[in-house]
Amino acid sequence: MTATIDPTMTSISTPDPSPAAVLGRLRATFDSGRTRPIEWRKEQLRGLDRLLVESEAELLEALRLDLGKPSLEGFITDIAFVRAEIADTLRHLDRWLAPTRAKVPVKQQPGTARIHRDPLGAVLIIGPWNYPIQLVLAPLVGAIAGGNTAVVKPSEVAEHSSRALARLVPRYLDPDAFAIVEGGVEETTALLHERWDHIFYTGNGTVGRVVMAAAARHLTPVTLELGGKSPVIVDRSANLDVAARRIAWGKFLNAGQTCIAPDYVLVDRTVEAPLLARMADAVRSFYGPDPAASPDYGRIVNQRHFDRLSALADGDGAGEAVFGGTRDASMRYYAPTALRGTDPSAPIMQEEIFGPILPTIAVDDLDASIDYVNAHDKPLALYVFAEDAAASTRVVEATSSGGVCVNATLFHITVPGLPFGGVGESGMGAYHGRASFETFTHRKSVLTRPTKLDPSVAYPPYTGIKGKLLRKLL
Ligand code: NAD
Q1: CATH superfamily assigned to domain 4-226+429-445
Q2: Can you give the pTM of this predicted structure?
Q3: Ligand 1, pocket residues at CB < 6 Å
């Protein structure tokens, strides 16, 4: 925050950094109308884009320090991803913002009806640590496009990324409209105490409940981007070479610390062995014989998560390692690992793994996979591999999840036209592309009637002929 010299005093004063003061500043900006013109919004979006281009090296270094993130991976998932969101928004914002017409039925004529997209006001964006730049800046794109002011609270767990954003954002965006507030539970709790016009939270469901309870005090709407166990279903008709590669890629990217990473595999038992063998080949071809030495393989974010993963893999019923299984706490390295013979009642099958361990459960047929998925919380993502289109269609139609990929993992998140979000335990609301704009705006209905005609039949007293006429008309 920049220091200002108050001419009436001899000392240097800094703006009050309390949540109430930050929010007050943002509200004053919003109330002034500054955020409404489309040109201002586009200018902020271009500023955010410049930040990503000019500070790429600094951001990638922060990601490396936080997550051991390979530079190209960070570029793809955190830099290019947000830039694509910005480009898509800049391309379509005029159209999204234009009021749309609604039909006025003959009985309600004359009049015109339009739906305006109103900014919400001051919004709060709370992010997690696993894609610490993408997961706060992508929602921010929607908040800007919607004409809002915003406070962004990055995760303290990815401290280098948080610090980089706090340093860079005020240089590129209007500091009276956007603020980065750093901190952990205490600071977030203080922010949640305030009255926001929308809260956009990404993280685990336990904290999601805290956020929603805090929002309820002010009747503030929330978007909750949560997680859960995203299953992969491998049908006997699957192209096993491709399935193995795509599952391994989706699982071991960011060392498995991806909200939509394949969490476990339900595989038709007739193809279990060849699938696992091909997956071992894929992992070897991606990361070499020793993934610890690969520049393309990430690390576990901290010791707490490393210990959590170790306990899950060592827990009863986790199954035997088909490949991987090794780990080194000193480097927070956990090898890409697949398990077979996992017991559905094992601890590893009770919570989101969020790391590079992939349990597999062999099933007799597609129905068994569908039944398993439907007996558990609705996942954020579901993946089905099948060459038999009837099989994949059945899975899509018989299950509920935030999103689905057929013969792919993770890729649905890259299509701006696809709303991204969960359902049930995996969250509520959605964003990306137009869905972000919709999340951060209110659909305001505006009816305009001419005043030339104003027949008295519409007004009380509804006696005699008037009453009869109205009954006929309505
Ligand atoms: P985290 O620990 O960084 O927490 C998320 C945010 O909540 C942080 O900003 C943190 O400061 C704040 N927070 C933590 N405890 C709090 C409390 N008691 N009160 C108020 N705020 C609090 O991240 P995490 O929750 O470990 O993230 C991982 C989870 O997020 C996984 O479940 C993953 O699936 C999910 N996730 C979902 C998405 C998605 O897009 N749906 C994306 C990434 C991660």
Answers
A1: Aldehyde Dehydrogenase; Chain A, domain 1 (3.40.605.10)
A2: 0.94
A3: 126-130, 135, 153, 155-157, 184-185, 188-189, 202-204, 207, 210, 225-227, 259, 352, 354, 380, 422, 427
